[in-house]
User: Which sequence fits this backbone?
């Protein structure tokens, strides 16, 4: 009979812990519930709106569209970081990051921009092989300035 008492005690213990956990969850839910009439957070704008706002020069929209893998928006954001426009500071490291990201998602212009960074040594050491690689990627994506850079390189 002593074994039954231990099982009963364990069951009572689990039941008490479950009730305590449920009470905590209920209290937390009540504490985080918005006040009636309080303004609710806005839903994220749709992809098309982010892209349109990015084209209008809004850096935050470009960042949102870039996160959704829109290569043109990543490139636009990279240019904004290069020039310190669109509500973002001038930051060449960030520009390089966004141009690379653009290239990775299929923007020939993004590849071209990274190639130029390497060719010109813009805020990074010159890297002719890196430049050539990114110009090749840009040309594969049919971005004509990248193809022109490759042609110029062949003539040297």
Assistant:
């Amino acid at each position: 009979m002593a074994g039954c008492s231990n099982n009963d005690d364990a069951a009572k213990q689990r039941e008490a812990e479950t009730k305590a956990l449920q009470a905590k969850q209920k209290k937390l839910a009540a504490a985080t519930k918005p006040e009636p009439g309080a303004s609710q957070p806005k839903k994220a704008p749709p992809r098309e709106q982010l892209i349109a706002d990015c084209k209008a020069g809004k850096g935050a929209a470009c960042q949102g569209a870039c996160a959704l893998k829109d290569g043109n928006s990543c490139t636009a954001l990279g240019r904004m970081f290069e020039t310190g426009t669109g509500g973002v500071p001038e930051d060449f490291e960030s520009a390089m990051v966004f141009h690379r990201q653009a290239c990775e998602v299929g923007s020939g212009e993004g590849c071209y921009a990274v190639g130029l960074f390497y060719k010109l040594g813009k805020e990074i050491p010159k890297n002719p092989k890196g430049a050539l690689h990114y110009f090749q990627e840009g040309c594969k994506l049919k971005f004509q300035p990248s193809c022109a850079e490759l042609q110029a390189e062949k003539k040297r």
Observations:
- The radius of gyration is 27 Å.
